[in-house]
């Protein structure tokens, strides 16, 4: 019994000693670390003092964040955009000839192809036909009398006056017959060219005159684009200029060149006419389709261009903010006064002072002042 109690007390004493030793080791380690911390803090303080005292070491200034674009030569062009339409290269309004009359028959339909000289419509010619029939009958009678009188006259029989009167009557009736035949022929409206009948504004039974358009015939074997351009561009567009034609209804683009540039200014709307021919082998291209013409009036294959919004203006003129390096490898914003050229599609051509490699500030320039430090 006593021996068991001794064992228990011995175990308790051992555990107490172990716990005491563990606490002693942690305290020792904590003391050691605090001493190391104090030494490091002293070294940091010493280095900070040395750096502050050394004037040859400078901290880079904190700059405003921006975005820049490095400038390099690129192709640039300016174009004039106008609206025009598709038309046949040979388009004719057809009128009736003579005095006109009532439309008796229409022989063609819209969209029909016709040959040159083909009859398109016929006017009422009943009056002329009646007059012609009478004139032919009279001519036949007078011709018979004339021939008999001529035979007698050649035999020196009869009066010369009778012979000459019959000759005059015969020639007068021949002229009358010829006139009536011509008037009857003018009652036929014929196609002056080969092409497609695009419009028939008249109807059967309608009274027409030489002032009324009866048909519109277009030769679609050769198509063209026609447009009226503002007078202000009269000195900038010339024959041979490159043109891109957009047909919005077809979502199709065609390239070509100006074939005709009118030298006449329309006094009503102050425009002049521009024409270019296009391929006619596409059946979906139709007359009077809307066409948007983009006429290139200026090109520069090695232009220096910037977004139009980065060009600012002050009392000295137009300028651009660029990123300029400093001696300590930082960057500051600097004004660079420039001369601008053409502007197109959001880009402006710079013609002087800006050079290749310049870093133009394109984002964040609105709030910058010259000389401010920047980062990008």
* Class from secondary-structure proportions: alpha+beta
Uncertain regions: pLDDT < 50 for 5+ in a row? Answer: 55-60
> What share of residues is helical?
25-40%
Using the alpha-carbon principal axes, give the shape.
Answer: rod-shaped
CA distance, first residue to last residue: 87 Å
In short:
This protein is α+β, with helices and mostly antiparallel strands and 376 residues long. Helices cover 28% and strands 39% of the residues.
What brief labels describe this structure?
conserved putative lor/sdh protein from methanococcus maripaludis s2 fold; 5-stranded mixed β-sheet; alpha+beta; 11-stranded antiparallel β-sheet; 376 residues; Helix Hairpins
What does this 3D model show about the protein?
The protein is an alpha+beta fold and 376 residues long. Among the domains are: 88 residues, conserved putative lor/sdh protein from methanococcus maripaludis s2 fold (Beta Barrel), CATH 2.40.420.20; 62 residues, Helix Hairpins (Orthogonal Bundle). 28% of the residues lie in helices and 39% in strands. It is built from three helices and 22 strands. Strands 3, 5, 8, 10, 11, 12, 13, 14, 15, 19 and 20 form an eleven-stranded antiparallel beta sheet that branches. Helix 2 runs antiparallel to helix 3.
